[in-house]
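Prompt: I keep going back and forth on a fold encoding question. Comparing notes only helps if you start from a blank page. Show me how you would write down a chain together with its backbone fold. Please set it down just below, with no commentary around it:
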Amino acid sequence: MIWESSYWKDPLLEAANLIEAYSRTAEPPEALAGAAEYALMTSFFAIRKLIDAKTKLTKETEAQVVSMTRHRSVFAPSDPVNKPNLMNWHDLYRFYDFETSHTVEKELYYACNQIVHSFIFAFVCSDDGKPEGILFSSDKDKDKFVNYMELDLIVRVFRRVGNDQITELTMSRDLDPNKKQSTGDWTIRKSV
């Protein structure tokens, strides 16, 4: 559990600034790309932990929906030779259909899990060499699809979570002696 959330939220604001600067740099140096990759991975992990804590984010922030573009796989998952593995995962055009796609709307927690457990993780750059998004898919879903998310959206999400403050929290505990079996769990009601 998280005791003091500012130590988890403040780095999200720093990560947002780093990712924003990274996305405005044509052909960024490797050190900046490495720092951006680290910031993305650790920030999505931090967001997942903040959501798991149940008392550190407003219900609106916890339940926010993010838009992703999904590209389906073009290989047979049963073919062990022609699917992403540790040595070829970067050969994305071989494995996914980038000519067709569809938009999916998922809760932020889903995106956090996909990125924290990513087997596929790569930056996408515009024609002028500026990073504009990431491709990612978890180890469990890499045989089905790869997702794309814009860096501008990620920056907005990091800032929203980093600045999020609960103003009221009410908790009650399930200890009803008249029930056959009380759980002892807490029910949390939050206000913005």
Notes: The chain has one domain: 6-166. Residues 6-166 form one domain. The helical segments are 6-23, 30-52, 59-62, 92-95, 108-116, 151-163.
